[in-house]
Write a structure and sequence with these properties.
single chain; 153 residues; Glutaredoxin; 4-stranded mixed β-sheet; two-stranded antiparallel sheet; 6 helices; 39% helix; globular
Length: 153
């Protein structure tokens, strides 16, 4: 009995620390939307070069309270805004679009979802019909993240 209690006390912090947001691809999320029609999508738009995106992943998105809240209340999607992969969502196909000048380009799903506001990191909350409910921009520590998440538009 004491041995089991001791092991539980040792393993519990490890289990809590390893909790992660259950990020899905856009295609996986569309399947999940059919199973959980009451849940909105939470889409994290990031780029490989974005330092603030990496900071958000390493801090806010590792916080146990944030992880639990997002996993419970949303269908979480992680989407590379500069992905060259063609994606399908809600019957539409989105492709990579090269931009003129110094701008690399963007996947048209990110462009349309973010209403052309290509600032990263960016987070879109969409209802089950694919309608944008809320758009959040930039790095946010936990308190600011929850404040912005619950603020009225």
């Amino acid at each position: 009995m004491k041995k089991n209690l001791f092991l539980s006390l040792i393993l519990l912090p490890i289990a809590v620390c390893t909790q992660e947001i259950n990020w899905l691809t856009l295609e996986q999320a569309e399947v999940e939307m059919k199973k959980s029609p009451d849940k909105a999508l939470f889409i994290d738009f990031y780029t490989d070069w974005c330092g603030w995106c990496k900071k958000m992943d390493a801090s806010t998105f590792k916080d146990a309270e944030v992880v639990a809240y997002i996993n419970k209340n949303f269908i979480p999607v992680k989407f590379d805004a500069e992905s060259k992969e063609e994606v399908k969502f809600r019957g539409k196909t989105y492709k990579f679009v090269r931009a003129k000048g110094g701008f690399k380009g963007v996947n048209s799903f990110a462009y349309f979802s973010l209403r052309g506001r290509l600032s990263y990191p960016a987070y879109a909350i969409m209802n089950n019909n694919g309608r944008l409910e809320k758009l959040l921009l930039g790095y946010m520590p936990k308190a600011k993240f929850f404040e912005n998440l619950h603020a009225e538009n």
